[in-house]
Write a structure and sequence with these properties.
The chain contains 18 helices and 33 strands. By secondary structure, it is an alpha+beta fold. The chain folds into 6 domains: about 60 residues, Arc Repressor Mutant, subunit A (Orthogonal Bundle); about 60 residues, OB fold (Dihydrolipoamide Acetyltransferase, E2P); about 70 residues, OB fold (Dihydrolipoamide Acetyltransferase, E2P), CATH 2.40.50; about 325 residues, no CATH class; about 55 residues, no CATH class; about 100 residues, OB fold (Dihydrolipoamide Acetyltransferase, E2P) (Beta Barrel), CATH 2.40.50.140. A hairpin with a 4-residue loop joins strand 32 and strand 33. Helix 1 crosses helix 3, helix 4 runs antiparallel to helix 17 and helix 13 packs antiparallel against helix 15.
């Protein structure tokens, strides 16, 4: 269709959509628009087309009226920069909402929207027309009294809540400036007015030890204390394993097995055993039988389901189950009989599971091992450590062999390993950070990871083909547009990626990461590939796991700290005991949609709270290092500056306003900053030296500036030694 026709179509449609428009018949419209008689066929054609598109319709009186705009509802997710996205129910792609179209909506609000622009290269755009339900009713923040006035304000911790909250004096609970508080919103503001609230709780002074972490706990509404009823029930069921408990179970107490965890782990929910028989390995993954103690619909079960997951915040854990269970009878403590659910797999030399058994068992862990100790045995060949655990060394060596085979098999099929370092925090008794470093991934951590992955796949495949209700861990293929953008970007570095018909295979991303390994752009390409991925979630339908290149995947191995695993154990045990009748099947079908949705939401909440805690401790750590110079790598690039990551995982921003040697322009397509006059180029993945110039605990930000070549500062040598 020519441009003239499209222009005229727009004129007609805009007229009919105008608030001042009065419905007209065809002839009236033609006269109003001054369309000559010989051109009226074209007008009729335009009107018919707009009718087909349901943008307009003919009333009973033959008059043209605006069509009803289609409305959608979903949850609004705000961005700190003012815009946001609406997650629509049952759709995988979100709708972008510009700052001018938010209509006063806040993060977490359920809203009604209309689509203003269909998807092209970017996502669909929309406009919020109505707020259906508020998502945030409570806010955590810093109270500031207004001297000499009968009111104060709370500055929210949540940066997505971008307005201060007005607090009348009579609703301040006598808080003073510097108090961290929990506020209940009584008004959301609008028409130039600030939101208003009343203080429910004073957490503590901002400088008091523990106030920072507790503020995050309260901000994410994480349940801390267990109800008395739940604690009493946990005490009641925490009885030593009896003969009656063991009846009908497979007795594996004579099988050599160990737990391998971090030094500070207390909830040990998985033990492993490996033997090499001929051309096969017999791998046993033995998981704490939590469902033996947490009965469906009990107070314990309701509380665990509500919490969804344990949350790990720096120096404290908010467990899913009371410590009596999680660190007691459910924990696979060495030297004690324990009830377990075991997945025993026969694995050939190529890493294929040729046979398996899932059974209720009773086990007796021989040793509680740590990752550090097993690393010393296998990687460092530490004589003292090998002598200390000499009866277990053959099993550990067997484990190492099998782990290598399993990893090789996963690599062969295209499994993607994003090897970004996690952060390890070392804190003093007051919660202050003494050391921040990358978490050590070694031969022992990788072994346990490989065995758990295999058990999860095996169990998922078994239950998929039984066609029983189940909980899967799914990871969908990346968004097409993001993958195409990644493919276009890597061309700048001479890389290419094969994309099928609107689909990329995991193998392609894996090959890309392998090609980039050891190059300056490795971190950059890894991050961009990760950003193109969707978030994994729990679901009652199996759609496979893209990242692992697995057709079947679940979470079976951590029922002490994850509710989906506990739910799965319950299904497995009902099946093993012959109780999976039609009524049970119907029951599980009826609850699993809600169980998986809630589990995915609580997982996201826990992840966000954990990230915020780590960010906070990083800021606190750098507060005492203002003025010091460090080596780092440019890890992110935006129009407002460059993010630089240090070897210890701390990241800070070099804001464009602090790049004073030139005016720098940002080139989005190549992720570069180029000096207007000097031509100096900064690229993602580039090594730079930076100085810490500021930190902000409220905003949880660290500010750097680039240190010019030849400049050296106190603390640099110390840092470099520290980071090795």
């Amino acid at each position: 269709m020519d441009k003239t026709f499209e222009k005229r179509k727009k004129v007609v449609y805009d007229l009919i959509c105008d608030d001042l428009y009065t419905p007209m018949k065809f002839k009236e419209l033609a006269i109003f628009l001054q369309v000559p008689k010989e051109k009226r066929d074209e007008l009729r054609q335009i009107l018919e087309l707009l009718e087909q598109e349901k943008k307009i319709f003919l009333s009973k009186r033959g008059k043209y009226v605006r069509g009803e705009t289609k409305k959608f509802s979903g949850v609004y997710r705000a961005n700190v920069r003012g815009f946001g996205f609406v997650e629509l129910v049952g759709e995988t792609s979100d709708v972008f909402i510009g700052e001018e179209n938010t209509n006063g909506a806040m993060d977490g609000d359920t809203v009604e929207i209309t689509i203003t622009k269909e998807a092209s290269k970017r996502s669909r755009e929309g406009k919020i027309i109505k707020i259906l339900a508020r998502g945030i009713t409570r806010v955590v923040g810093l109270y500031e009294a207004n001297p000499g006035k009968s009111f104060g304000f709370v500055l929210p911790d949540n940066q997505k809540f971008q307005k201060d909250i007005f607090i009348p004096a009579e609703k301040s609970k006598e808080a003073v400036s510097g108090h961290k508080v929990v506020v209940e919103l009584t008004s959301y503001g609008g028409d130039g007015k600030k939101p208003e609230g009343r203080i429910l709780e004073i957490i503590g002074h901002v400088n008091d030890p523990g106030t920072d972490i507790m503020s995050i706990v309260k901000g994410y509404e994480l349940p801390v204390e267990f109800p008395e009823k739940v604690l009493r029930q946990a005490e009641r069921v925490s009885k030593p394993v009896s003969e009656a408990d063991m009846a009908g179970r497979k007795d594996l107490r004579n099988v050599q097995m160990v737990t391998i965890d971090g030094e500070d782990a207390k909830d040990l929910d998985d033990a492993v055993s490996v033997v090499h028989k001929g051309d096969h390995y017999i791998l046993g993954v033995h998981i704490a039988d939590v469902t033996n103690y947490v009965q469906e619909n009990s107070a314990l079960d309701h509380e665990a389901r509500e919490r969804g997951t344990s949350v790990y915040l720096a120096n404290r854990v908010i467990p899913m189950l009371p410590h009596t269970l999680s660190n007691g009878i459910c924990s696979l403590n060495a030297g004690e009989d324990r009830l377990a659910l075991s997945c025993i797999m026969t694995v050939d030399l190529k890493g294929n599971v040729v046979d398996h058994e899932i059974a209720e068992t009773v086990i007796h862990v021989d040793r509680r091992m740590t990752y550090t100790s097993v690393k010393k045995i296998l990687e460092d060949h530490d004589k003292e450590e090998r002598d200390r655990y000499k009866e277990f060394v053959p099993m550990f060596e067997c484990m190492q062999e099998l782990s290598g085979i399993l990893r090789g098999r996963r690599t062969q099929r295209g499994s993607i390993d994003f090897d970004f370092p996690e952060t390890k925090l070392v804190l003093d008794e007051n919660g202050r950070p003494l050391e921040i470093r990358p978490y050590d991934r070694n031969v022992a951590t990788r072994m346990i990871e490989d065995f758990m992955l295999l058990a999860n796949e095996t169990v998922a495949q078994d239950y998929y083909w039984q066609e029983l209700p189940f909980v899967y861990r799914t990871h969908e293929a990346p968004d097409d547009e993001k993958i195409k953008a990644l493919a276009a970007f890597i061309n700048n570095f001479g890389y290419s990626m094969h994309i099928g018909v609107n689909e990329v295979r995991p193998k392609e991303i894996q090959k890309l990461l392998a090609k980039a390994e050891g190059t300056p752009e490795e971190a950059l390409i890894g991050r961009l590939a990760l950003r193109s991925m969707r978030q994994a979630r729990y679901a009652p339908e199996n759609t496979g796991h893209f990242g692992l290149a697995a057709s079947y995947y679940t979470h079976f191995t951590s029922p002490i700290r994850r509710y989906p695993d506990l739910q799965i154990h319950r299904i497995i045990k009902d099946n093993l005991r012959g109780r999976m009748n039609d009524a049970k099947i119907e029951h599980y079908h009826s609850i699993l949609e809600e169980v998986t949705k809630h589990a995915s939401e609580t997982e996201r909440r826990a992840d966000e709270a954990e990230r915020e805690t780590v960010k906070l401790k990083k800021v606190e750590y750098m507060q005492g290092r203002i003025g010091e110079v460090f080596e780092g790598v440019i890890s992110g690039m935006t129009k407002w500056g460059m993010y630089v990551e240090l070897p210890n995982t701390i990241e800070g921003l070099v804001h464009v306003t602090n790049m004073q040697d030139d005016h720098y322009d940002y080139y989005e397509g190549s992720y570069e900053m180029v000096g207007e006059h000097t031509g100096k180029v900064y690229k993602l993945g580039q090594n730079v030296r930076v100085r810490v110039i500021d930190t902000n605990r409220m905003m949880r930000t660290i500010d750097f500036e680039i240190v010019s070549e030849g400049e050296r500062e106190d603390g640099e040598d110390e840092w470099q030694a520290d980071s090795q």
